[in-house]
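Exercise 7. Given the components listed, write out the predicted structure of the assembled complex. Treat all entries as one system.
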Amino acid sequence: MKTLAATGKYTSLVVAGLVALVPLVVIVFTALKTSQEYATSGPLDPPRSPTLANFVTAFTDAQMASAFVNTTIILVVSVIGTIVIGTMTAYALDRFRFRFKKIVVALFLLATLVPGVTTQVATFQVINSLGVYNTRLAPILLFMGTDIVSIYIFVQFMRSIPVSLDEAAALDGANHFTIYRRIIFPLLRPAIATVVIVKGIAIYNEFYIPFLYMPSRDLGVISTSLFRFRGPLGTQWEILSAGALIVIIPTLVVFLALQRHIYNGLSAGATK
Amino acid sequence: MTAVPVVAAASPRRRARLPRPGAAGRRRSRAATRGGWRITPWLFLGVPLALLITFTYVPVANMVAYSFTDWNGVSKVKEPVGLANYVEFFTRPELFRVFFVSLYYLAASVIQMALALYFATILSFSTRFKSLFKGVLFFPYLINGVAVSFVFLFFFQPGGTLDSVLGLFGAPQESLPQWLGNPDIINFSLAGTSVWRYMGLNFVLFLGAIQSIPAGIYEAAELDGATRWHQFRYIIAPSIRPIISLSFILAVSGSLAVFEIPFIMTDGANGSTTFVIQTVKLAFENNKVGLASAMAVVLLLIILLLTWLQRLLVPEEEVDLA
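Answer.
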């Protein structure tokens, strides 16, 4: 009975593992084949003489270099902005009592329920009237301005920082900004790490916001550059596969390096 | 931000409300306190609130306003049309059918959660290669949506990964359907892709919840002769009910908001148009901002209703910010 259960358990795990991996492994095989070999072999056949030529073609033709630069700029600025904004909001909401506080909290909470993609219909007009359409500022503002989950993570974490620390600093003559800057902000480091990870992954993978607000090819991020790459190539799957892998490999490296933090970060972020 | 210290300098902490000794000092510090109290939090909240209002509330308000007009997104005039856009959405079958498409994704997310729960449960017991399996099952969730779409375009194409794997099991290639070309099948294929992509997240969340149960409870149960099923039924299931119900509500609203995979893979062709694809196409390709806004308002109302239901049904899952 026990061995039967164990067999079932490991069989199901192996099957699930194969389902997760086979589609990706096949893409790796395809990306390593020459176009002749791709045309003459089946998808499941491993490449006979692996070549990296498709990666070079995909990297240059899809303008991946500029895509990584654009993604990095947007990612770094948005993440820093999110941290500053999120920690300031959390500090104000957790450490002060003030008039209309309930309304402010309700505004932030209600905003979590508004599904981002749908309001783009009207957000587009706002971005347009601010004159930032087709600039990197458009996604940066949107990534910074609509991240309520980070604020929530910061508030949760700030509750565990004793108020007595603030009070001691205030007795020593520190003002509120100094308390925020010198005491609260450094102690929030674990929460900041969580937000960097969760937000970083989300921005790296974001497709629709850059697609809608940065149609210019020079402003392509990795998602949009890969997306536009498909058009002219149609069915040249050995090159398209290489393009997809160029986008996936950095994610894999980050995942292998930061596994534990990613699991914990998602658990903290997802329950909102 | 440089203005903060001046006002806030003398103000004691809000919770230090005991009167201070020394009349002169008290008067001064009280005045400062009041000023500090009133202004300081707003100095911290100014920028965040401005962003929140500009990028969430202004769009929502505009969206509601547009939904009662015939605006095309470009022209200067917006003629009020009353409820005509809402009537059009609910009466034109080709628009209303987006709700049926979301049923595929809803069914898929039920399967997804069942799978996630199963794997979270078996991996919470001691297992060989545990972290390897965990990583493999979770990793798809991290992959860029465009890359996922490419992987599955190749997977489903004629003679692609799926056909070849089925060939290994002896399925004759000519009898296999067009996974993305057949309108009766396409939504199964796309919803399946969605399960592949998102199962890992549910799985990791469930696993985290299960692992937060103290190990001693299992040991005690085992001493009392509880089987694995009993442990699941009486220990694991009750303690992860909140996260499951939360995931379920998120799944319902998520299945209405499906966008990326079908948009990138098929551009909504062959009957795979979802609610959100329909909305953005109407707005940005057909210049029907009024109608698109009405649809977006309907979606927003449904999601607000679902969330309200969730709060009603699962009060312990209280979400409060401050």
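Discussion: The radius of gyration of chain A is 24 Å. The CA atoms of residues 198 and 265 of chain A lie 6 Å apart.
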